Amino acid sequence: MKVTVLGAAKEVGRSAFLVNANHTNILLDYGVLLKREPIFPMHVKPKDIDAVVISHAHLDHSGFVPSLFLSQSTEVQSLGTVPTFELSQLLIEDMIKISGFYLPFEYLDLMTMMKRSKILKYREPYEINDITVTLHESGHILGGSTVVVEHGKKRLFYTGDINTRGSKLLRQADLNLDPIDLLIIESTYSQTEQTPREQSEAELLEFAYEVIDRKGTLFIPAFSVERAQEIACVLKTNNFPHKVAMDGMALKANEIMVRHPTFLRDPEVFKKAVTEAEWIRGWNRRKKIVKEPCVIISPAGMLVGGTAVFYLQEIAKDSKNGIAIVSYQGEGTPGKTLLEKRVTIFDGRVRKCLADVKRFEFSGHNSRSELFEILDRINGNPKVLTVHGDGLSCTKFAEEIRQKYGYDAKAPDAGELIEL
Ligand SMILES: [Zn+2]
């Protein structure tokens, strides 16, 4: 078995790996790196591959998959769980709709990707010629998977994005695996210990009560898939008594997620959290709710678009209001600017944000110690590739793995070929 790294080298975004065994070629993810303009992984000719496995719906893993389906008569298969396909369709469709930049595919190609989809269940092996692919629960977002690829006696394990502690929304990642020969592991927080989840929850609740007690509105910009619903579940399980409203694309994600209860940790809690929240429809209601003491959850998580732009503008005007940042903020995004400078920028005008702004850690990724726990639990004597992290997170992590476990570990470059 051979693996070529097509994108995610020492960076977060455009995850893509080509796995070859004899005459069978499959891709593990084919994502984009979303900067001001999207950056794509290395080119693959669709006729050269048999299938593409989508680990989860986030665009840095799924966003470039439609480019493999430009021909409607293609024989390439797309593999993933049901929620992964439904959520990928939602997110990719949105990317096509709002993109002011060039994308080398369109809606029709996304539809071909959906038509060529083969739905896989967790732990059910699927054969493509002499390669076997098995998905396992990743705990990262709904339907998210880690991937085991087997050929002969060799076994590869790709973590995708992984969360082994679980969340209010999802069960923890499934790490009951046979011995591994090659481990491709995400490194996002390999050098960072995140705030323990219970502490983040307690701090967020305290802030929510504080803002509402002074008759303010708490605005929580959140990613539409997973984070928005996770925050709603956190408020519900802590018996938060005040009004919670949700808006924007989070509502479409709610509709998809509620249809797949078996993928949720506690379907009852989820259902309560999202159905008892007010779903904001239309501008009349939107303009009124910003004056009510309540919590409003709305994408985009980094405040780059969606209904969040309106809420930011309104909520920032009043010092009794609050803004809780619960999602990762990329460089150069309005969310990052708000956090660092306490200003908002609309139509080129810079205004001071009067609302109280606080940041809370609610990541869907493993922390440093949890990444090492994966290595503790993996059997075999695997080669290790550290991917999906900014430079140092990958290189330092690989060095630490070499020292601690004696494994042949490295942070690969784009285009690098690894043989098993
Ligand atoms: Zn992800």
Task: Walk me through what this model shows.
This protein starts with a strand and ends with a strand. It folds into two domains: 2-192 and 364-419, Metallo-beta-lactamase, Chain A (4-Layer Sandwich); 197-359, Rossmann fold, CATH 3.40.50.10890. The protein has 420 residues and is of the alpha/beta class. The strands form five sheets. The protein has a seven-stranded mixed sheet with strand order 8-7-6-3-2-1-24. Strands 9-10-11-12-13-22-23 form a seven-stranded mixed sheet, covered by helices on one side. It has helices at 59-62, 82-98, 107-115, 197-213, 227-237, 249-258, 267-275, 283-289, 308-315, 334-341, 368-377, 391-405, and strands spanning 2-5, 16-21, 24-30, 33-34, 38-39, 51-53, 77-80, 117-119, 126-128, 131-137, 145-151, 154-158, 182-186, 218-221, 244-246, 278-279, 295-298, 322-325, 343-346, 349-352, 356-359, 383-387, 409-410, 417-419. A hairpin with a 7-residue loop joins strand 10 (131-137) and strand 11 (145-151). It is globular. The structure holds zinc ion. Zinc ion (ZN) binds at residues 56, 58, 140, 161.
